Amino acid sequence: PGGGAGDLAMTRVGRRGFGERGAVAVEFALAVPLLMLLFGLVVGGARVWLARSSVEAMAAAGARAASIARSPVSAESQAKALVTAQSTTAGLRCSSLHLDVDARVLATPPGTPGQVSVGVTCRVPLADVIVPGWPGELAVQAQASSVVDQYRGRR
Prior knowledge:
This protein has about 160 residues and is of the alpha+beta class. Helix content is about 55%, strand content about 20%. It is built from 4 helices and 3 strands, in the order H-H-H-E-E-H-E. It has a 3-stranded antiparallel β-sheet. The model has no long low-confidence stretch (mean pLDDT about 80).
């Protein structure tokens, strides 16, 4: 009774288990911040994608509105009105919104084929996109064009 190989094995197992006490808490304390960072990157990436797709939709809608107009001046005003409305509808807060409309084809006589193009640049605060309170801005740009009906009346 005592001093055998079985007692020695029990002592080693007992000591090994005692030495790992608190290891789960340490692993948890290390894993949680990493998981939070990963989650933040996924959410931030999704919000950047949403901002880019919203600006692409604004450019496409602006190009379509400009292609329906009858003059270059009305094309620019209609595209600007629609892009501005789309930016508020999409929930995208642009600190600056720049619109570039190329509607020269509307100044040509009917029967002339062509297209209208619209470029949209929206500077989105990173606080809106990634993390609240984050400094800086993200410039999101998109370009779209729409074919003008060549037999439609123009002014």
